[in-house]
Structure formats: structure tokens, C-alpha cells
Amino acid sequence: MTQTTGSVPLDRAAAVALVERLPEHALPDRLAALRGSVRFDLTHDGDVVTRVAATLAGGVVEVLPEPDAPVDVVLRLPASHLADLLGGIANAGLDLLSGRLVIEGDAEMALALGGVFVVPGTETDPVAVDPRALDPVAVACALVGVPTSHLRAVMAGGFRAVVLEEVFTRLPSFLDARKAARCDLTVGFRLTGRDDGETERYVVRVAGGTCRTAGPGLADTEVPERRDATITCEAHDFLRLATGHLKPVTGVLKGQLRVKGDKAKALQLLAVLDIPCAVE
């Protein structure tokens, strides 16, 4: 079956050619570190129209003759988007959150594949798009119109730790120092919704006009015992909260954010953070 993007056809032969040329656009050492198999399920209007499977080992990409062969990870995306992904133009992390890209299987391998591409003509910091570099403003835009069911599924899987680490690492940069000048508060977050039923615990400390965060994957991994309040919520609701898609008071009233302790301190924390505005 032939898929067209505008006036340019993209059939299986064209898709295979793109995948085979992947080494031409990749950092050799990063590509060489990848071991495994991947299949690209290319869609049009939601239906899969072309499949391409390949193995990656030692920097060599070999397209498999049987596109339906079992693989480590499946990447499902619009056929028109394959060139952007393999050319280092698209951010696999943002695409995953927005629903443009669906990952089945080894999410770590998928993200590693999305981080091997080179910016043409550059000699320093050549990685085109780091799928783990998730700017909160870009995430806020990517989440517009995304179904809750999709976001819940993404935040239950292998990409969850990457998202949470990025959000909490960048959170201090969104502190409004003027509003926070007289604040002295410590708020914990218990994030649920993992496939294994476990929870992650993070803490945000605001004092003297500065903000620090602690938790899994962060520079400060020691989570303080003392806290004024603890907010419990599913990870996908926390992501919506941190990107302006969920208003704090609405979340509390609907039971999406459950606050234990000093509710005023919890709301004060959210008030001194200049959350990226998401226009829906």
C-alpha cells in the first residue's frame, strides 16, 4: 500500500530506505551502543499502512525481510512523521506525550534511538534532539487536547521516570522570587499510578526566595522527613498540574489532588510557582 504525504509518496520501499540510512545521521558511538530490534508501524488516518522492522547492533542497522517479526520495541507513528523522527527534527519524548508516537515494549531503547541523531554541520554538542530534555513550556503545548487515558498510560510506563525527573529538576526555575520572598514551606508529593503499584516521593522546599527539590533521580535524593503538607495524586495529574492543565483548587475539589496536612501551605507553594500557561 502506498502512503502519500502531500504529493510525495511514502511506500514500504521509501520507509525502508529511510531506516537503512539511519547511520548516516547518527552519532557513531551512540548508535553502536544500541542493541536490539525495532519496528516502525507507520499510520495514516489512524490505520497502519506500512511496517518496517530492523535490528541494531554494533552501529549496523539491518532491515528484516519479515516486517511482522517479533521485536524489542514497536514505534507507532504517522508515516509523514518518520523522516522527522529519523532526521533528528522531532522530539520523541514530546511526541510520546502528545500521542503522535506510541511506544510498545522497551521504552528505554526507543528513547535511546531518539537521541542518536546529529545536527548537520555542527562540531560541538551535536545531538539534534534529546528526547529526555523536556522543557515544561513545550510539554504544556504538547499536552493540549491529549486524552487523559493516553497520558495515564504513558505515565504508568517506562517513560514515567524521565518525565518526573525533568519536571522536578526544572521546577525551581519557575519560582516567582518576589512572591516567594517570605515563604517558608516544605511540601511533599506522593505520585501513584505505576504499573507495579509503587509510589515515588518528591519534596519541594521553598525558603528565602529560593526553591529546592529532592527525590528519585535528582541531584538531591534525600527526601526530608518534615513537611508541612503532602499532596497525593496520580503522576499524569501531577504532570497536568505542573504544566497548567489542572488548576490546584479544581484538582482538590475533584479529588484528583489529595492534601494531607496544611492545605494553605500546599496551595501557597502552587501559587508561588509560575506554571507554564497551557491554552486549550
The coarse silhouette is elongated
Portion of residues in beta strands equals: 25-35%
Class of secondary structure makeup: alpha+beta
Helical coverage, percent range: 25-40%
Number of DSSP E strands: 12
Radius of gyration: 21 Å
Write out the strand line-up for the largest beta sheet, numbering strands in chain order.
Answer: 5-4-3-6-7
Low-pLDDT runs of 5+ residues are: 1-9
Largest sheet: 5 strands, mixed
Describe the overall structure:
With 280 residues, this protein is of the alpha+beta class. The chain is 31% helix and 26% strand. The protein is built from twelve helices and twelve strands. The chain has helices spanning 12-20, 28-33, 82-86, 92-98, 107-113, 136-142, 148-154, 160-170, 177-180, 235-242, 248-253, 263-272, and strands at 3-5, 8-10, 36-44, 47-57, 60-63, 73-78, 102-105, 184-192, 200-207, 210-214, 229-234, 258-261. The strands form three sheets. The protein has a five-stranded mixed sheet with strand order 5-4-3-6-7. It is elongated. Mean pLDDT is 87; it is low at 1-9.
Please sum up the structure shown.
The chain has 280 residues and is an alpha+beta fold. It has helices at residues 12-20, 28-33, 82-86, 92-98, 107-113, 136-142, 148-154, 160-170, 177-180, 235-242, 248-253, 263-272; strands at residues 3-5, 8-10, 36-44, 47-57, 60-63, 73-78, 102-105, 184-192, 200-207, 210-214, 229-234, 258-261. The two termini are 36 Å apart.
